Amino acid sequence: GEIVNLLPKNIRLLENLALIIKQEFYNSPLKSIDKSYENCLKAANNFLSQALKNDNVSWLGNLNCAVTAIKDSSFYYAKIGNIQAILLRDAILTDIGDKEKSTTRQAKSFNDIIYGDLGNNDRLLVMTQGANTIFEYPKDKKPSKSKKEKPADKEECLIKTIARTTNIDTKRLKEIFNRV
Prior knowledge:
Blueprint: E1 2-3, H1 13-25, H2 33-53, E2 63-71, E3 74-80, E4 83-89, E5 92-95, H3 99-104, E6 114-117, E7 123-128, H4 129-132, H5 158-164, H6 170-178
Antiparallel strand pairs: 1-2, 2-3, 3-6, 4-5, 4-7
Helix pairs in contact: 1-2
């Protein structure tokens, strides 16, 4: 996550929020992942609510944070602010986040939980708006809309390159990023 337009009094807010989420999630290893995830979001929301009660409102509209948990083939995802989650499955990109909801109001809590199953070759990318910009087409290299242009001639954006890459690992990701 991130806090944009950070004020000095909030220098540790994101760090403390992450600590509370981790502590609550791993509090009882015997709990189901569903229950642990719900409990950590509840603790996070209580922390943010307490910040508001203490007149700490400068993070409103400036906090962009996602809480993601993956166990076996199941994933859980919730967010505050401008965070994007993209599922890469069979070379198809799916934005699993609710982009419009986060930009039309100042979120004060993690409300909606998105959950689902991941396949063996699925990839889940969770990123802030700043990180998302590295995956876009460079302004001077956007693909032409000309119908005469062959698909092989198009400059491919980074995220689509990753989406169509099979057997991706850290080494392969580094190779892709180094081409940019």
